[in-house]
Amino acid sequence: MTLPDQDSTLGISDVLALGGVFLVGALPFAHILARSAAGADLRTVRTGTVSASNVYVVAGPAPFALTFLLDLGKGAAMAALVRRRRPDLLAVAGGLVVAGHNWSPFLRGAGGRGVLTATGVLLVAAPEGAALVLGSAAASGLLGDTAPGCFVAQVLLVPVLAASQGRTGALLGLALALPMLVKRLVGNRGAASGRVYLTRLVYDRDVR
Ligand SMILES: O=P(O)(O)OC[C@H](O)CO
Hints:
Helix content is 72%, strand content 0%. The chain is built from nine helices and no strands. The protein has helices at residues 12-26, 29-38, 52-59, 61-85, 90-102, 115-125, 127-142, 146-186, 194-203. Helix 5 (90-102) crosses helix 8 (146-186). It is globular, with a radius of gyration of 16 Å. SN-glycerol-3-phosphate binds at residues 51-53, 71, 112-117, 146. The chain crosses the membrane at residues 12-34, 54-73. Keywords: Cell membrane, Lipid biosynthesis, Lipid metabolism, Membrane, Phospholipid biosynthesis, Phospholipid metabolism, Transferase, Transmembrane, Transmembrane helix.
């Protein structure tokens, strides 16, 4: 993929490049690995999220590790590419690569929650944000469930990046947190009651 040279205007080539970023984000590595390693369709497993954690459930540690690296890697690769050519578009590109992962056209709009792909973007663009996400998820995981920690990190992403990088950081945090929080709310299953939405936000599932 060729990204345009640095220029503050948004031309057709920029729009095409950003479309390419979305499509890279949409590459459903978890789906491919779960299918090939275990013949499973992750959309029917537990919360139906097409993510590394569900790959672990159906296929074990090696496919999980590969999915983890690929989902992280696509976010990091897109962030590195865009930062080099159009740093002013980094927040937009970050939001798009996560949105592609969460609503993949290759899975008719199903997808993951964007945590690993957003972390890949953060590792390149704002390592303090990556530390926040990974640290919160790990601490929460030690208490038995990574989901509440991921939620806390998503809520804190904007203020933490605003404190470290000012307006640019706040925009990046917002662009990454928004598709992650929206996907937690809507999941791959759609409408629910108010109480279920709250459980989805905090615990990333419909029933606590
Ligand atoms: O949010 P995702 O789609 O990157 O998936 C996260 C993994 O399952 C690790 O919890």
